């Protein structure tokens, strides 16, 4: 198969560095040439414009620059070619750091100590052993499993929830709709690492948060969402924080991004906000993986980390 040309279609990311790295090995374009450009074989995308890819009759594959692919499925004219998502040590490492950072921060009562510091209060708070805290990873996939294994090594009790049964040593696993409530009932700190699909949209709602366990030394349940914003209902999280259903939350993703300046989440004393920055896609690490895949595909080998179109992730 001949060496295919790459269309780079990124929204919200500066294309320059991606372009330079891709162009070291392949011809790269930022716009298709004409209404039905036959010269493009691959598209490297983040939130591509609707119906852009349907104009490429010889498109062989679409590469997401992220682990999530909901931004690709938002296109009503998505052509029926393989979709490759990111599975990369560098991204996994960043997400593991984020999850461990946020779990430890809540576990070690950082918000309370900060509030005390502001008032110059010298008071030691009770310290609970990690093994008394159950961290429930909602979405025990590539990122969830990596975070789970580091949290396990720190002594936390770990639960995992996935669509299919996913056994993992040392982790209490739950699957599917039937496993959701038992999973939540056994979880003190809920870490959301689900993909956004028609089945998961809005899953982090008040009713779900109400099911979390609250009999730990944390003084309440905690939510950490680094999956996708539209998994959650921002208003339900605020309600849960107000009535004590949730003690605290760390949110990296929001229903609307950037988080509107008018959102009460920005200034809520029990919410830690990051701007969808848990695990950044770094072209230095990701472009070589994409180029290697394109080369292998042209030698007749299979693409790796393919998205299941029916499942939506
Ligand atoms: P994976 O596909 O490896 O894992 C997804 C997990 O979610 C799997 O365990 C899957 O179950 C489970 N899941 C999917 N649908 C359901 C459902 N309906 N019910 C129960 N479980 C379900 O994805 P990754 O771990 O690589 O990434 C997860 C997500 O993290 C991405 O989709 C993206 O949205 C987000 N992300 C966010 C970033 C950020 O910076 N905030 C950075 C990178 C990713 P099963 O194992 O049975 O298939
Ligand atoms: C991703 C992201 O999906 O950064 O990789 O959100």
From TrEMBL:
<dbReference type="GO" id="GO:0030267">
    <property type="term" value="F:glyoxylate reductase (NADPH) activity"/>
</dbReference>
<feature type="domain" description="D-isomer specific 2-hydroxyacid dehydrogenase NAD-binding">
    <location>
        <begin position="102"/>
        <end position="278"/>
    </location>
</feature>
<protein>
    <submittedName>
        <fullName>Glyoxylate/hydroxypyruvate reductase A</fullName>
        <ecNumber>1.1.1.79</ecNumber>
        <ecNumber>1.1.1.81</ecNumber>
    </submittedName>
</protein>
<keyword id="KW-0520">NAD</keyword>
<dbReference type="GO" id="GO:0016618">
    <property type="term" value="F:hydroxypyruvate reductase [NAD(P)H] activity"/>
</dbReference>
<dbReference type="Pfam" id="PF02826">
    <property type="entry name" value="2-Hacid_dh_C"/>
</dbReference>
<dbReference type="InterPro" id="IPR036291">
    <property type="entry name" value="NAD(P)-bd_dom_sf"/>
</dbReference>
<dbReference type="InterPro" id="IPR006140">
    <property type="entry name" value="D-isomer_DH_NAD-bd"/>
</dbReference>
<keyword id="KW-0560">Oxidoreductase</keyword>
């Amino acid at each position: 198969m001949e060496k295919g040309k790459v269309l780079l279609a990124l929204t919200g990311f500066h294309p320059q560095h991606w372009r330079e790295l891709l162009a070291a090995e392949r011809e790269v374009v930022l716009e298709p040439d004409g209404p039905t450009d036959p010269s493009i074989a691959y598209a490297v995308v983040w939130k591509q414009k609707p119906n852009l890819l349907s104009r490429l009759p010889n498109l062989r594959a679409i590469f997401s620059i992220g682990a999530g692919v909901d931004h690709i499925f938002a296109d009503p004219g998505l052509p029926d070619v393989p979709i490759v998502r990111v599975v990369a040590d560098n991204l996994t490492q960043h997400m593991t750091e984020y999850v461990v950072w946020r779990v430890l921060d809540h576990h070690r009562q950082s918000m309370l100590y900060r509030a005390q510091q502001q008032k110059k209060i010298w008071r030691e708070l009770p310290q609970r052993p990690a093994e008394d805290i159950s961290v429930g990873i909602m979405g025990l996939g590539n990122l969830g499993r990596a975070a789970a294994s580091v949290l396990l090594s720190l002594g936390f009790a770990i639960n995992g929830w996935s669509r299919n049964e996913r056994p993992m040593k040392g982790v209490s696993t739950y699957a599917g709709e039937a496993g959701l409530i038992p999973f939540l009932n056994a979880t003190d700190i809920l870490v959301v690492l689900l993909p956004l699909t028609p089945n998961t949209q809005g899953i982090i709602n008040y009713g779900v948060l109400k099911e979390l366990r609250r009999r730990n030394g944390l003084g309440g349940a905690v939510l950490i969402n680094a999956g996708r914003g539209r998994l959650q209902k921002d208003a339900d999280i605020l309600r849960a924080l107000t009535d004590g259903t949730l003690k605290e939350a760390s949110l990296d993703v929001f229903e609307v991004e950037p988080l509107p300046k008018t959102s009460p989440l920005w200034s809520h004393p029990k919410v830690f906000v990051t701007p969808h920055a848990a695990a950044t896609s770094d072209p230095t690490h990701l472009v070589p993986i994409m180029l290697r895949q394109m080369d292998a595909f042209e030698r007749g080998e299979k693409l790796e980390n393919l998205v299941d179109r029916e499942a939506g992730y």
